[in-house]
Amino acid sequence: MSTEKPPVELVKGINGLDKIVLREIRGCSAEVYLYGGHVTSWKNDHGEELLFVSNKAIFKPPKAIRGGIPICFPQFSNFGSLEQHGFARNRFWSIDTDSPPFPTNSTSKAFVDLILKPSDEDSKIWPHSYEYRLRVALGPGGDLMLTSRIRNTNTDGKPFSFTFAYHTYFSVSDISEVRVEGLETLDYLDNLKERERFTEQGDAITFESEVDKIYLSTPTKIAILDHEKKRTFVLRKDGLPDAVVWNPWDRKAKAMADFGDDEYKHMLCVEAAAIEKPITLKPGEEWKGRLELSAVPSSYCSGQLDPAKVLNG
Ligand SMILES: O=P(O)(O)OC[C@H]1O[C@@H](O)[C@H](O)[C@@H](O)[C@@H]1O
């Protein structure tokens, strides 16, 4: 009998919560909790964790898990009357056994389809009917792909609008050594200055204090360069024009019950999002938002390409 672990496995996680483990043949893996439809782990083929999850994260409703990839839907932050970041991140999702055909060019077996539909309670706070399908997939090279498909299933003829974010917490060696490329010269709303609009300077973004910015109309590709780890995260996104960059720094870190005082040094949120222009769907319409994450050695993709390294491997 083979002892090889299956590409998709449903197991019990922290506090007995259901989680799905995805495994790729070369050893990469990912974990998704049904609570929140929340990715809590993404490891490369060396078993190194690429996402940040706080040591103080609370894996218990109604608190969303601090770290990984919370889903912000149907509201980002306090852009509306719902609870902060909407409710999808603290609802129990189901495994979708009846997912409609999914166009894909990957042969990977390591994927799971989840679905969220409104409960009666949810309909009271957001009076719309929808089907939210989330596919989480690991590519053959270890890339992590999240695809959201949200359909308006209202029978009253009414459209609905929402804002959205994949609130990804990346694990970094030291925030002071990290640089983000792809957001230079763009306009952003500064959450620390009453969402006033500014224009970013020409240099890559670096970090020396709290940051909470919503970059607008961003390119489909953003890179996070971690010098110390010699690792670059590449985000590729589709249907998600905005990008939030957040690090709470020391003071806010101390104020969060589910976040260690010094953990801000080892995380950075870069969130592919649709915020400035909310998505509006008429009954029967579907929206798709896709995020693809890869982690590669820095020399291969940075703006600082070292030709010698690229040529000689
Ligand atoms: O503590 P929460 O609700 O998970 O939010 C964390 C942060 O999420 C970010 O996306 C917001 O821009 C910040 O303003 C917010 O503080």
Q: What are the defining features of this structure?
A:
Beta-galactosidase, Chain A, domain 5, binds 6-O-phosphono-beta-D-glucopyranose, 313 residues, single chain
Portion in helices: under 10%
Order of helices and strands: EEEEEEEHEEEEEEEEEEEHEEH
**What is CATH's topology name?**
Beta-galactosidase, Chain A, domain 5
| Mean pLDDT over the full residue set | 94
The molecules bound to the chains, other than polymers, are: 6-O-phosphono-beta-D-glucopyranose
InterPro entries: Aldose_1/G6P_1-epimerase (IPR008183), G6P_1-epimerase (IPR025532), Gal_mutarotase_sf_dom (IPR011013), GH-type_carb-bd (IPR014718)
GO biological process, one term: carbohydrate metabolic process
EC number: 5.1.3.15
Active site: 167, 271
Describe what this molecule looks like in 3D.
The protein contains three helices and 20 strands. The C terminus is likely disordered. A hairpin with a 5-residue loop joins β13 and β14. The chain is 6% helix and 40% strand. The chain has a single domain, classed as Beta-galactosidase, Chain A, domain 5, CATH 2.70.98. The chain is mainly beta. 6-O-phosphono-beta-D-glucopyranose (BG6) binds next to β18.
What is the topological layout?
Layout: E1 8-12, E2 18-23, E3 29-33, E4 38-43, E5 71-72, E6 94-95, E7 111-116, H1 120-125, E8 130-138, E9 144-152, E10 160-166, E11 169-171, E12 178-181, E13 187-190, E14 196-199, E15 211-215, E16 221-226, E17 231-238, E18 242-247, H2 249-255, E19 267-281, E20 286-297, H3 307-312
Antiparallel strand pairs: 1-2, 2-3, 3-4, 5-10, 6-7, 7-8, 8-9, 9-20, 10-19, 11-19, 12-16, 13-14, 13-15, 15-18, 16-17, 17-20, 18-19
Bound molecules: 6-O-phosphono-beta-D-glucopyranose.
